[in-house]
Design brief:
22% strand; alpha/beta; 41% helix; 11 helices; two-stranded antiparallel ribbon; 10 strands; binds S-adenosylmethionine
Length: 284
């Protein structure tokens, strides 16, 4: 993917932040805690940070002073991440943030030297297989845990149901897997591919469902999500556009009235590294 890539709006990220926080699998944080250093520097690299929502969610759940290095290719989003800082850590200690504008698919192992944790959220499905493979290599090379949350895995469920839902969902998934700049995006296949690659290189990979469950309290997000969902489907399958006018109007009216319930499936991954060779031999 190029540094320009697909731009994500600040408004969309603000709208989804509470739903993302509610959806991420909390037990992966429990599994991560024993691998979080008890002393010394805690340096967390957040890849594709957007406006920094991952830090605002995770930093207060982990103890100890933390330094977050947040990476994104979008300078405007990074400005927000630098201004809207995470609250203090779980024990009240300070959290600092450093921004880095970069293409995270072109990171070199040295870029993450000293990392004690790597995070990403809503990122993997935007990558191609080669980009994901490079990212996996860099994460494993850093030798620290990685918490990669909220990758779209395909499958949405709308209530009340409508006969057009399945066709729109299929066209949306195809759009997520579209070929751009000569390479196919992984879309809903990202988690399967990531699991396969990490399982061969890491000590342990944990995977948990992390669906959005949107209802009346998330009516604005449901309406915005639906607009993007049906728009991408129609872009992918042009003949759908003529058939979805009434459907779109009806669904948006339902969403706005808080009468549309939507489940959007995601998955979270926690990757735990092998012990460094020195620790393995002393433990054995
Ligand atoms: C869906 S947003 C998620 C943002 C944030 N992690 C969150 O959960 O709110 C994906 C983010 O990844 C960034 N991104 C996507 N591909 C990237 C790349 N190759 N290099 C750097 N940033 C990238 C986008 O600019 C965007 O900010």
């Amino acid at each position: 993917m190029t540094v320009e890539g697909i731009r994500v709006s600040r408004r969309w990220l603000a709208l989804r932040e509470p739903a993302d926080a509610a959806a991420r699998a909390p037990d992966l944080v429990e599994n991560l805690r024993p691998h979080h250093p008890e002393t010394g520097p805690r340096v967390i690299h957040d890849l594709g940070c957007g406006t920094g929502a991952m830090g605002r969610w995770l930093a207060p759940l982990l103890p100890g002073p933390q330094h977050w290095v947040v990476h994104d290719r979008d300078a405007d989003l990074l400005k927000v991440a630098a201004a809207d800082l995470p609250g203090p850590a779980a024990d009240g200690t300070a959290v600092t943030v450093e921004v880095r504008q970069s293409d995270i698919t072109r990171l070199h192992p040295g870029d993450l030297t000293g990392a004690t944790l790597i995070t990403a959220s809503a990122l993997l499905d935007m990558l191609t297989e080669d980009e994901l493979a490079r990212l996996v290599t860099v994460c494993v090379g850093a030798g620290c845990p990685a918490l990669l949350t909220l990758s779209v895995v395909g499958g949405v469920h709308l209530t009340p149901a409508d006969p057009l839902d399945r066709r729109v969902a299929a066209a949306f998934d195809a759009h997520q897997r579209r070929t751009t700049e000569g390479a196919r995006l992984l879309g809903p296949d990202a988690v399967t591919v990531a699991l396969d690659q990490f399982s061969r290189l890491a000590a342990e990979v944990l995977v948990r469902p992390s669906p959005w469950r949107l209802g009346a309290l998330q009516a604005d997000l449901a309406a915005e999500w639906f607009t993007g969902w049906v728009g991408a489907a129609c872009e992918q399958q042009l003949e759908l556009a003529a058939e979805t006018d009434d459907y779109t109007r009806r669904r948006l009216a339902e969403a706005t009235a808080g009468q549309l319930a939507v489940t959007v499936n995601h998955a979270d991954l926690l990757i735990l590294p092998h012990d460094p060779p020195s620790e393995r031999s002393s433990a054995g």
